[in-house]
Amino acid sequence: MSNDDHLTATTTVDHTPDEVFAAITNVRDWWSENLIGATAALHDEFVFTDDCKYAGETVQEKEGIRFARFRLTEVVPGQRMVWHVVDSFMTFIDDQHEWTGTDVVFDLAATPEGTTVRFTHQGLTAAKSECFEACSRGWTFYIETSLPQLITTGTGQPIPKYV
Q1: Which uninterrupted H or E stretch holds 148?
Q2: pLDDT tens for residues 44-96?
Q3: Residue 14: Cβ within 10 Å count
Q4: H or E segment and range at residue 120
Q5: Cα separation of 149 and 146, whole Å?
Q6: What would you report as the CA-atom Rg of the chain, rounded to the nearest whole angstrom?
Q7: Which of 2, 14, 51, 160 has the least C-beta neighbours within 10 A?
Q8: Are 140 and 9 in contact (CB under 8 A)?
Q9: What sign does the dihedral 99-101-104-107 (CA atoms) show?
Q10: Measuring CA to CA, which residue among 2, 5, 22 is closest to residue 151?
Q11: Tell me, which fold does domain 6-153 have in CATH?
């Protein structure tokens, strides 16, 4: 991967593109239960948060992505989904709005093995993105582990809901 390549992750599962697409739209079951909003239709908006105030911690005690607000700008069932990051705030990097204006893209392709998901976080590159390494580790886990588990077993490994 060159320093100008966008953050990517890829996985293949033995299921149809429509089944995989349905799982992707079920974001709470593979990425995070801490979402507000809808995650399936064109123009839907949702907010991801790892703000732990609800778990008895304060923002100063835990660093992470305070929030990211997404708008679904492309929804082609069984083929492609794009989340545009409308706004974001991350406490663990200097450019705390680094995700704002980026796009999270899921491209699906039928293969002899089932369906391949190519995930790209467009706008995050090794050369220009402060969160590239940490974000790459996180997205890779959710795309290559949690999402396939949701598709194949019915249970992913999302961030649990704060109480």
Answers
A1: helix 147-153
A2: 999 998 755 444 444 444 455 678 999 999 999 999 999 999 999 888 788 88
A3: 12
A4: strand 114-125
A5: 5
A6: 15
A7: 2
A8: yes
A9: negative
A10: 22
A11: Alpha-D-Glucose-1,6-Bisphosphate; Chain A, domain 4 (3.30.530)
- Decide: 34 and 49 in contact? Cβ < 8 Å: yes
CB 124 within 8 A of CB 135: yes
**DSSP code per residue over 31-98:** TBS-EEE--SSTT-EEEEE--GGGGT--GGG--SEEEEEEEEEEEETTTEEEEEEEEEEESSSSSTTT
44 within 8 A of 38, measured Cβ to Cβ: yes
Give, as one character, the DSSP assignment of residue 159: B
Half-sphere exposure of 110 (CA within 13 A, CB side): 6
Distance CA 153, CA 141 (A): 16
pLDDT band at 4 (very low <50, low <70, confident <90, very high): low
Residue appearing with tokens 């940490």: 134
